[in-house]
């Protein structure tokens, strides 16, 4: 696997070349500059606008991370004189409409799934396009769809290279959006290899940058959209304008359906929640939240165990190593973890389980928080496990937040059903054979204490749960067993 | 149609009093009743399919609520509804076929082509309504009124383009055609129900080989015919029959098998676990097959399935396709189980002295519970032999897509989003 081996080789240069100049945010790190946490750190540094963009938006939605932290991240990026604001692509304003901008504005709504936002953005591409033939429209859509998928990648590359390489700008302005992710990597590395080895660091950064999260549901959603909307079987006899309006209609309808998918899933799963049951939920999925909300509103009595996402114990006062700044007292009283304070290592534990428990507490549902390690301990009290999905793959398995596979294994060994709630646009044409077979998605993980240089940290953000551990999938297409998924995908691409 | 009402009420009463034994009999009677409903239904000139569907649905709901545990009733109702939709679709396509023909004889007009495409889109939509909602049909899937809409659309265009061709007689002919088609199809359905045992038994030779030992519990007519068919093909095999308390139907089965020359051993239910390691296969019938491949079977079969799984003995279930239910069992032990009379366990009169004692409130200390059914999860079932062949439990969704329409899964008039 090329990306793994590359990192081993390129880790060496990073040890030697701790080029603080190239990473302005390193000043903000109070603690280590050791290469051990280099992986985690470098992820937090330059790619701040990129990897964190995904988490950044989520953080903005969730309000778990303090605005202080965000301001710092912004400031860090803004410290580069030539840097462009991460929100806008470097593409000159020759294109008055930017799908990325549109996507971002849709994404700001906290309730909207990322893929649905993408679909809506693509619909507005159609609306604002000036193409005169269907083929042209298709090409535009393809460009837009690609740029959405690679938008995060683009942002970081832009941020990185515009500072240093004019030639990259050259490259970038000539139809960047048409280049696939792999091509970009190739071109980027070839670009870099033209330069002196003193700039090894950039290649390393490229490699790291290509580790970026490409959201599976986003990719799958875009692919599905492209497929549905541009199927022109019913458009053959019409003139372009009516074809375009028909396309737009379809696009809007697809957006509608995707948006309503959550309600349908909630309706379908009601029968499976009975009075007096105990449900174990992992991570924060808006679909699962909708399911539980509907159940609570129909006056069902149940309780929920929330797991997922705490790297350390909730009791943050354990962390004495950090010297909090003046505002610390407020933070302490609000029980916001010390890692969110400026001056602390920038990793955050993923607090998704906590967020879900907050939401459920608002609904007056009895909630119990568990750390991930306590799942097996509490599994015998549990009646069923409910999870969402980042993506549903061809085998019928799911890709979801790290920890799902573990929970599914425990549930299976204790004969508890595992239910997955996923919208149909999350069905992806992937077939992972093992855990490492996916596009890596990394997240910063912080243990709160400095880690010795020899110690690696597993930073993957998601895992793959094979279909034999899943009982049923609730989708807007109905209740499905995992074996139906591959059938659906075949039908789709028939 | 007071006749209709009387017939329906009679049937509902029979169902409520559990007078009809067995899924096959129930299925057959339900199909016959629905056939009568269809044939006696007055159809409006437009939207015939919707009218039929409404009528069948109304009757179906009453039948299902009369005996919710007997899933065959719901299955047949849904089958008939699916038949109506299918026949309607084929009537539509044959119409658009006529349409295209007539259009070509006229002048070539973009208008005409437009109108050609729209009915075909309508037909396409109707076809997709038939299929279970899938990713593929996501955009073409229209709500229930689609059937009505497409009907209207095709009628509308019939009028517009082919004025000279459409006259009331044709529409009338079409309406009769739909009814006739549906009744024909329902007759086929009834035939299928009647002959399901033969079709299943034809497959017996493939599964029962020479010198095999087979275990079964209680008595299932399908299983009996399965054994007989194998016996006729000169297979020599032995059968272990577990008696199936409290009804002891196993005794009856044992006698029948012996009458046909099959070597039989009768055992108690409790002995199953100790003997299952010595058999080659476990063969049982089912009361119903659920959408996830799990089965509702007479009480005691879950234990047998677990025993078979423990000793890696294949657990084979034989069931007619009328037992296939498109619903998922979310709480099968409670909602799909019926309680039979406790007198099967304990005769009234015996132990009645104990029944008198109670707690302070007078509630008796001794309870006698006699559940009728067991739920066997799909992981424990190795093979499901139906009249359309032998399949894995995970294949059930395919059969369901063939025989049922997704719109009919929920028959109660609940408000859905």
TrEMBL record, chain A:
Region described as Disordered: spans on this chain: 18-45, 333-353
Pfam families with a match to the protein in the record: IF-2B (PF01008)
Protein family (similarity comment): Belongs to the eIF-2B alpha/beta/delta subunits family.
Protein name: Translation initiation factor eIF2B subunit alpha
Subunit structure: Component of the translation initiation factor 2B (eIF2B) complex which is a heterodecamer of two sets of five different subunits: alpha, beta, gamma, delta and epsilon. Subunits alpha, beta and delta comprise a regulatory subcomplex and subunits epsilon and gamma comprise a catalytic subcomplex. Within the complex, the hexameric regulatory complex resides at the center, with the two heterodimeric catalytic subcomplexes bound on opposite sides.
Keyword field: Cytoplasm, Initiation factor, Protein biosynthesis
Subcellular localization: Cytoplasm, Cytosol
SUPFAM superfamilies: NagB/RpiA/CoA transferase-like
GO CC term (a single one): cytosol
GO-annotated molecular function: guanyl-nucleotide exchange factor activity; translation initiation factor activity
Gene3D superfamilies associated with the record: Translation initiation factor eif-2b, domain 2, Translation initiation factor eIF-2B, N-terminal domain
Polar residues composition bias: residue spans: 28-45
Keyword presence, Cytoplasm: yes
InterPro entries referenced in this protein's UniProt entry, alphabetically: eIF2B_alpha/beta/delta, elF-2B_alpha_N, IF-2B-related, IF_2B-like_C, NagB/RpiA_transferase-like
TrEMBL record, chain B:
Pfam family, one: IF-2B
UniProt-listed SUPFAM superfamilies: NagB/RpiA/CoA transferase-like
GO molecular function, one term: translation initiation factor activity
GO cellular component: eukaryotic translation initiation factor 2B complex
PANTHER family: TRANSLATION INITIATION FACTOR EIF-2B SUBUNIT BETA, TRANSLATION INITIATION FACTOR EIF-2B SUBUNIT BETA-LIKE
Similarity remark: Belongs to the eIF-2B alpha/beta/delta subunits family.
Protein name per UniProt: Translation initiation factor eIF2B subunit beta
Origin organism lineage: Eukaryota, Viridiplantae, Streptophyta, Embryophyta, Tracheophyta
């Amino acid at each position: 696997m090329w990306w793994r081996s590359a990192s081993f080789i390129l880790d060496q240069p990073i040890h030697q070349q701790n080029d603080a100049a190239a990473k302005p945010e390193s000043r903000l790190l109070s603690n280590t500059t050791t290469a051990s946490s280099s992986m985690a750190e470098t992820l937090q540094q330059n790619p701040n606008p990129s990897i964190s963009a995904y988490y950044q938006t989520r953080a903005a939605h969730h309000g778990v991370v303090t605005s202080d932290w965000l301001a710092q991240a912004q400031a860090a990026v803004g410290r580069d004189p030539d840097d462009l604001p991460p929100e806008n692509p470097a593409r000159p304003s020759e294109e008055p409409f930017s799908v990325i901008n549109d996507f971002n504005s849709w994404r700001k709504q906290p309730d909207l799934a990322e893929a649905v936002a993408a679909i809506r953005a693509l619909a507005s591409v159609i609306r604002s396009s000036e193409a005169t033939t269907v083929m042209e429209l298709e090409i535009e859509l393809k460009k837009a769809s690609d740029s959405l998928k690679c938008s995060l990648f683009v942002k970081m590359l832009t941020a990185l290279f515009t500072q240093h390489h004019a030639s990259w700008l050259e490259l970038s302005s000539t139809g960047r959006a048409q280049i696939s992710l792999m091509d970009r990597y190739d071109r980027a590395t070839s670009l870099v290899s033209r330069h002196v080895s003193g700039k090894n660091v950039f290649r390393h950064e490229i490699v790291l940058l290509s580790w970026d999260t490409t959201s599976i549901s986003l990719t799958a959603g875009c692919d599905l959209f492209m497929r549905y909307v541009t199927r022109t079987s019913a458009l053959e006899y019409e003139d372009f304008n009516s074809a375009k309006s028909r396309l737009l209609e379809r696009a809007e309808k697809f957006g509608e359906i995707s948006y309503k998918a959550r309600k349908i899933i909630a309706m379908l799963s009601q029968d499976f929640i009975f009075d007096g049951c105990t449900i174990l939920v992992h991570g924060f999925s808006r679909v699962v939240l909708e399911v539980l909300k509907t159940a609570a509103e129909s006056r069902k009595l149940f309780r929920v165990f929330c797991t997922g996402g705490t790297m350390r114990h909730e009791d943050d006062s354990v962390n004495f190593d950090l010297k909090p700044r003046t505002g610390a007292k407020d933070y302490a009283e609000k029980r916001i973890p010390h890692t969110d304070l400026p001056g602390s290592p920038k990793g955050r534990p993923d607090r998704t389980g906590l967020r879900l428990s907050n939401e459920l507490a608002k609904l007056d549902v009895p909630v119990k928080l568990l750390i991930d390690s306590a799942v097996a301990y509490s599994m015998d009290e549990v009646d069923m496990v409910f999870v969402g999905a980042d993506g549903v793959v061809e085998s019928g398995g799911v890709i979801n937040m790290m920890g799902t596979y573990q929970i599914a294994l425990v549930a299976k060994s204790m004969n508890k059903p595992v239910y997955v709630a996923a919208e149909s646009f999350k069905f992806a044409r992937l077939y992972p054979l093992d855990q490492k077979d996916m596009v890596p998605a990394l997240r910063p993980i912080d243990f709160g204490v400095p880690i010795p240089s020899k110690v690696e940290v597993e930073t993957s953000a998601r895992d793959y749960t094979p279909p034999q551990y899943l009982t049923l999938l609730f989708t807007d297409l109905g209740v499905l067993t995992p074996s139906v998924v591959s059938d659906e995908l075949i039908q789709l691409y028939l | 149609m007071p006749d209709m009402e009387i017939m329906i009420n009679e049937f509902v009463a029979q169902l409520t009093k559990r007078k009809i034994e067995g899924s096959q009999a129930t299925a057959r009677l339900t199909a016959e009743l629905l056939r009568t409903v269809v044939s006696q239904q007055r159809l409006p000139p437009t939207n015939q399919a919707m009218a039929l569907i409404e009528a069948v649905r109304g009757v179906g709901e009453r039948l299902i609520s009369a005996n919710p545990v007997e899933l065959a009733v719901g299955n047949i109702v849904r089958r008939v509804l699916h038949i109506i939709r299918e026949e309607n679709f084929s009537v539509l396509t044959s119409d658009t076929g006529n349409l295209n023909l007539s259009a070509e004889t006229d002048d070539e007009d973009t208008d005409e082509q437009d109108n050609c495409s729209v009915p075909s889109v309508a037909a396409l939509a109707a076809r997709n309504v038939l299929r279970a909602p899938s990713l593929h049909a996501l955009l073409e899937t229209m709500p229930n009124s689609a059937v009505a809409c497409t009907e209207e659309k095709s009628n509308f265009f019939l009028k517009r383009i082919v004025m000279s061709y459409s006259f009331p007689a044709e529409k009338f002919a079409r309406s009769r055609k739909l009814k006739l088609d549906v009744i024909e199809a329902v007759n086929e359905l009834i035939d299928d129900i009647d002959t399901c045992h033969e079709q299943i038994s034809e497959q017996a030779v493939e599964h029962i080989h020479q010198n095999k030992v087979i275990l079964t519990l209680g008595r299932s007519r399908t299983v009996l015919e399965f054994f007989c068919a194998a016996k006729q093909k000169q297979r020599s095999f032995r059968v272990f029959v577990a008696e199936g308390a409290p009804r002891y139907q196993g005794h009856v089965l044992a006698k029948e098998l012996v009458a046909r020359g099959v070597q039989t051993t009768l055992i108690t239910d409790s002995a199953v676990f100790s003997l299952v390691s010595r058999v080659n296969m476990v063969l049982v019938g089912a009361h119903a097959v659920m959408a996830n491949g799990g089965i509702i079977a007479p009480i005691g079969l879950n234990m047998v399935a677990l025993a078979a799984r423990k000793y890696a003995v294949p657990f084979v279930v034989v069931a007619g396709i009328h037992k296939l239910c498109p619903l998922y069992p979310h709480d099968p032990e409670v909602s799909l189980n019926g309680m039979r009379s406790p007198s099967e366990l304990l005769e009234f009169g015996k132990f009645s002295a104990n029944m008198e004692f109670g707690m302070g409130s007078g509630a008796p200390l001794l309870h006698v519970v006699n559940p009728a059914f067991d739920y066997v999860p799909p992981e424990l079932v190795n093979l499901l032999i139906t009249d359309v062949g032998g399949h894995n439990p995970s294949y059930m969704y395919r059969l369901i897509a063939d025989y049922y329409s997704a719109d009919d899964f929920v028959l109660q008039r609940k408000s859905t989003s």
